[in-house]
Amino acid sequence: MIFHTGVAGRIASDKPQWGSSARMRPVYLDILCLQFPKTTIQGAHLGNPWYDEAAETSRWNAKLYFDISGSTLHKFIKLGKLNCMSEIMWWAEGEGKETRHTLKDGPSAWEHIVFGSDEPPNGLADNIDRFQKMLDANNVPQSMREKMWGLTMAKILGIDPATHKFIKKD
Q1: Strands 41-44 and 64-67: what pairing?
Q2: Within the chain, which residues score under 70 in pLDDT?
Q3: What pLDDT is stored for residue 95 in this prediction?
Q4: Contact 113, 148 (CB under 8 A)
Q5: Does residue 66 contact residue 5 with C-beta atoms inside 8 Å?
Q6: What distance in Å separates the CA atoms of residue 113 and residue 58, rounded to the nearest whole number?
Q7: Distance (Å, rounded) from C-alpha 43 to C-alpha 51?
Q8: Chain centroid, CA 136 distance in Å
């Protein structure tokens, strides 16, 4: 399941609207993860502007992932803070080593981030470029990049990356 997280865009209207960004905080996905522990959940936009909340929530939920689609990377580039993801994913230090600050046998920090896009087709190349710049600025290891670019999603969706076919599950 994928959920919008973070601030929602507005439709100019003089009529009441029922949606609210207050209901789209990433921490609310924690409730779903606890109630449905076998379900994989993805939060869009890394909870913009609640990035730390999104990261911390994913840290304790093995099946919770976030993409960084939308305006987040635009904002980080404009502020000169593309490398801030290393601070947000602070427990990535010692990647692959279990610590008391991570779930036993859970995904490592960067594995909780997957590539996503909500750009129209003509904006996809720029979105890919921004994501690559973020990976470079944060010195994300190549093995982790491959997971972020698609191997994690292939695993979640049951797709064999070599053949692009669905893997038969028991």
Answers
A1: parallel
A2: 93-100, 170
A3: 57
A4: yes
A5: yes
A6: 9
A7: 11
A8: 17
